[in-house]
Amino acid sequence: MPLQGPGHGKRKPRARASSGNPTLTDVAARAGVSLATASRVLNDSDRKVGAEHRERVLRAAAELDYRTDLSAQAMARGSAPVLALLVSSIDDPYFSAIAEGVVSSAHTHGVIVTIAITARDSARELTSVRTIRGQRPRAILVGGSRIAGNPHTGALLAELRAFAESGGRAVFLSQPVGGLGAVRPANAAGARDLGTAIARHGYRRAAVVTGSERLETVTERTEGLRRGLAPLGGGIAVVESDTFDRSGGYRSTRRLIESGRIGGADVLCAGNDFMAVGAMTALRDGGIEPGRDIAVTGFNDIETAADVTPQLTTVRFPLAAIGRRAADLALGADGPLSEDVSVPGEVIMRASCPPRDGATGVR
């Protein structure tokens, strides 16, 4: 680019040369700078541009109402200002709350969020990651429980490591894999605390309705509950598995009722709050009153947990904060990611699990 001194060598601003949407060439022409300089400013390149030229480019872009091309920005920086979030479901309040925190962090860091739905399908998850990598996002957050014996784990890990080696950042919102970073609820400890709390309320025989035993989250919560019940002589009488959602909670509870196995339990523990809501509906349909004939618990403390009748006993996790922290970790740091952050929960006792006769309910 030619040297420009005071009053010499500056190009006169001119009107846009193109019709329709303004281009980067239009901005450069109006600002009187080279196309490369305009690109470095507007695509947030790592190469520095002097304050005077930066101001002229930004002013020209504003006057022309120029909008940055994310593909061009990816070419300039090696990545686009995008964070990709993979979740199992968007209608599950658990993932919605996490996504809220992710979006909050992304806004702070000046990036946008794209969401891919994996439906707890490991092949679909792998395909999504491969597709997303081609869009050159700055970071990828992988939500949803890991699956024991997953045949796609090796390929997924290879994709995420290659992404990291090319300058991207990958963080799990679940159990970590292959030494990559993770921010996740402390499922086992939270379930253990729940088991202890309901045992102290006088409950000893739990019927568990939950997702597939291949989901590591299910294993963590079921075993944690078992450990919490055991010191006071309690235990898990039966486990019934189905899909990890409201419909699964309804169906699995109906099967327990129809088979008579529900009669061996004094508390019904659902793998998450969404399942607990379906379970309570199934109990009522079967002539069993939740909170009176049998206690009910959930997990996660989604917003509706305090709105159902009776209000749901559960384990509260700061889900939005978990999403925010994971996005901060992915967007705000340099170097390799390996931190495994386990976020503790808090047992919230409500009317669905009242103290039984003779139980104090005191921790």
Write a concise synopsis of the structure shown.
The protein is α/β, with parallel strands linked by helices and 363 residues long.
Walk me through what this model shows:
- By secondary structure, the protein is an alpha/beta fold.
- The protein folds into 3 domains: 68 residues, lambda repressor-like DNA-binding domains (434 Repressor (Amino-terminal Domain)), CATH 1.10.260; 131 residues, Rossmann fold (3-Layer(aba) Sandwich), CATH 3.40.50.2300; 132 residues, 3-Layer(aba) Sandwich (Rossmann fold), CATH 3.40.50.2300.
- Helix content is 41%, strand content 17%.
- It is built from 12 helices and 12 strands.
- The strands form 3 sheets. Strands 2-1-3-4-5-11 form a 6-stranded parallel beta sheet, sandwiched between helices. It has a 4-stranded parallel beta sheet with strand order 7-6-8-9, with helices on both faces. A two-stranded antiparallel sheet has the order 10-12.
- Helix 7 links the parallel strand 3 and strand 4.
- It is elongated, with a radius of gyration of 27 Å.
- The termini are far apart.
Main features:
12 helices; Rossmann fold; alpha/beta; Peripla_BP_I; single chain; 434 Repressor (Amino-terminal Domain); four-stranded parallel sheet; Transcriptional regulator, LacI family; 3 domains; six-stranded parallel sheet
